[in-house]
Amino acid sequence: MKPEEIRCTCCAKLLFKLEPNALGGALEIKCPRCRAINILRPQQSPSPKRPDRTFEEASK
Question: What secondary structure letter does DSSP report for 54?
Answer without folding.
Answer: P
